[in-house]
């Protein structure tokens, strides 16, 4: 016996008995992949599908830290990267890799803040290396802006 609920503008109504049984099975194939992004799992949509808009909070937080650490260095309160790292309780090598985010093109930073960056742009991918040339960055990172 099959049951289903009806949806009306007022909301869900009480389930009712199906008058005719379903004799065939309906199978839907939706090509999706689970990928890790920013330390969490997300669905990766097929090529050409519109991605869900959303800000990568991990990436935005890393950008904020990078610019804060840059201000700390520029102010002169902490003359070296080692001093900032000691103050923050982190490794100087980690600080240096995150600090590189300040070299991103302004429009790429804006896209990240507004959640318009390509799905492949994560803290991890940016930590491994960012080209100094903004045009190269745009070609490689700003596909979905």
What does this protein structure show overall?
With 145 residues, this protein is an alpha+beta fold. The chain has a domain at 57-141. 39% of the residues lie in helices and 12% in strands. The chain has six helices and six strands, in the order ββββββαααααα. The protein has helices spanning 57-75, 81-88, 92-99, 106-113, 123-127, 134-141; strands at residues 3-4, 7-8, 11-12, 16-17, 33-37, 40-44. A hairpin with a 2-residue loop joins β5 (33-37) and β6 (40-44). The protein is elongated and about 80 Å long. The N and C termini lie far apart (50 Å). The model is unreliable at 1-12 (pLDDT under 50).
How many helices does DSSP assign? 6
Shape: elongated
Q: Could you give the distance between the termini?
A: 50 Å
Helicity level, as a percent range?
Answer: 25-40%
Oligomeric description of these chains = single chain
Number of strands: 6
**Share of β-strand residues:** 5-15%
